[in-house]
Write a structure and sequence with these properties.
Elements lengths: L1 H18 L2 H17 L3 H4 L1 H9 L1 H4 L10 H12 L2 H14 L2 H26 L2 E2 L5 E2 L2 H9 L4 H14 L3 H16 L8 H19 L2 H30 L4 H12 L6 H19 L5 H6 L7 H8 L1 H21 L10 H12 L4 H32 L4 H17 L3 H39 L1
Antiparallel strand pairs: 1-2
Helix pairs in contact: 1-22, 2-8, 2-15, 2-22, 4-17, 6-13, 6-18, 6-20, 7-15, 7-18, 7-19, 8-14, 8-15, 8-17, 8-18, 8-22, 9-10, 9-22, 10-20, 10-22, 11-20, 11-21, 12-20, 12-21, 13-18, 13-20, 15-18, 18-19, 19-20, 20-21
């Protein structure tokens, strides 16, 4: 039996690696590029409109519209979910694999992802539904049934099933425990035992439970307060590092642009760098996965295009700004070079410790703490939405308990197979979502034409 389970685990890992590699990359980036071109480069040409929409009173007004939160809260809650370990550990791994040139292609991927998020946000308002309690809801499952029709309900059910698995925060919980033990408990001589990890899991449950059991309004309230603070603090800390090492800054950006278009090793090497950077950014911003439309579907805003414009700012912040902030200290430190098996978070912590001796790794750990918990808060909402659609609003509370229990499990066990299952579920969520967005994209384009004529 043990051999069968091991063989099954190996098969799951191999299947996940195959599907979540280039097939998922081309689905998200290729589909996003189509939407970018089809929309007339909305993420570039309409960026000023997006900034104005963010400041618009309707975007933050509580109003009397159907929904639970404002557009700004929806944006910040979606960012809270995407700004996480991937922005730090993932960027460090991308630099170790492909070098500084990957950062440029992260920027390109952010522009493409912004276009996808525009369509997601717009469709989330165009096609809302009601749950078993009569509450207005949004997300891919409702976009599918209301936009494509009831005959496509099996696709909506499939998305929701995949979502129950894909939105578990095993990675965040496990890596947070690993980080704390590495930076704090192990240097203090405290042995990294199963009991210690269990206790740390319970502490995380207490923190996460205090937020998610209050529902979407409490999650959105937390996100609207903590996300701007943590991004600004991260920006300030990186600016301090840049000020202390200002002579290296021109060289950093020189390496980014030179590495992005370096053909000295041949076209294959150039393509590898481009794909590594773009793929990392695509996985970080989750454009096309469907998570953002679940959050923006809870917005009280009734103007679909305005919601789309606000939604598309998400990748600019997480894949654009935050990933860039992570890359600058690592490139300055240069400790990512020559690693054959890079552990992203340790690379990032090492860079900060090198550039700010004595306190750098502690400051970054504080940011990692907020990034990890913000993701766990928002991801719980996505699982609640999927549970709501599949089993009814009255059963959502059971999902919350299941979600909290899985945090303790994640703190204690090796995660290779479980993370592969989650990655595979995420890829299947993206397949359902991108298919739906592309099929319904002509309706969005008609709506955006009339919106920008009036604007």
């Amino acid at each position: 039996m043990e051999d069968i389970l091991n063989a099954l685990g190996d098969w799951i890992v191999e299947a996940s690696d195959a599907v979540c590699g280039y097939p998922e990359f081309f689905l998200l980036i290729g589909g996003g590029l189509f939407l970018f071109l089809y929309s007339g480069a909305v993420s570039i040409r309409r960026l000023p409109w997006a900034m104005r929409a963010l400041r618009d009173k309707q975007a933050s007004d509580s109003g009397k519209q159907s929904g639970q939160i404002s557009s700004v809260q929806a944006l910040l809650s979606a960012i809270a979910a995407t700004v996480g370990m991937g922005n730090i550990a993932g960027v460090a791994i991308a630099l170790s694999i492909g070098g500084p040139g990957t950062v440029f292609w992260m920027w390109v991927s952010a522009l493409v992802g912004m276009s996808t998020k525009f369509f997601e946000g717009t469709l989330s308002i165009m096609y809302k539904g009601r749950d078993s309690a009569g509450e207005v809801q949004g997300g891919p499952m409702y976009i599918i049934t209301k936009g494509l029709g009831e005959k496509w309900k099996p696709l909506a059910v499939a998305f929701s099933i995949f979502g129950l698995v894909g939105t578990l925060c095993f990675m965040q919980a496990n890596q947070l425990v690993e980080s704390v033990t590495t930076v704090f408990t192990t240097p203090m001589g405290i042995e990294n035992t199963l009991t210690l990890r269990f206790i740390m899991g319970l502490i995380m449950v207490a923190i996460v439970g205090g937020v998610i059991l209050g529902g979407i309004k409490r999650i959105a309230l937390f996100a609207s307060r903590i996300v701007p603070v943590m991004v600004v603090l991260y920006l300030i800390m990186v600016l301090v590092i840049m000020a202390l090492h200002f002579r290296e800054i021109p060289g950093v950006f020189g390496q980014i642009f030179e590495g992005a278009f370096d053909m000295r090793a041949g076209f294959g090497a150039f393509a590898y760098v481009a794909l590594t950077g773009a793929r990392r950014a695509a996985f970080v911003n989750e454009a096309g996965v469907g998570t953002a439309s679940m959050m923006h579907g809870a917005s009280k805003n009734t103007d679909a295009v305005r919601e789309g414009l606000i939604a598309m700012l998400g990748p600019a912040i997480d894949s654009g700004l935050v990933c860039t902030l992570t890359s600058i200290p690592i490139i300055i430190a240069g400790n990512y070079v020559g690693l054959t098996d890079p552990k992203g978070l340790y690379v990032a912590l090492g860079a900060w410790g090198q550039l700010l001796p004595g306190i750098g790794h502690l400051l970054l750990m504080a940011i990692v703490f907020f990034f990890a918990f913000s993701t766990m808060f928002s991801y719980s909402y996505y699982g609640q939405k999927c549970t709501n659609y599949l089993f009814g609003a009255h059963n959502v509370k059971w999902y919350n308990y299941y979600y909290l229990a899985m945090i303790v499990v994640a703190a204690m066990i090796p995660l290779k197979v479980m993370v592969s299952i989650m990655d595979l579920a995420f890829a299947l969520m993206a397949l359902c979502t991108m298919f739906t967005i592309i099929v319904l994209s002509p309706r969005v384009k008609r709506l955006m034409k009339s919106y920008f004529v009036k604007a």
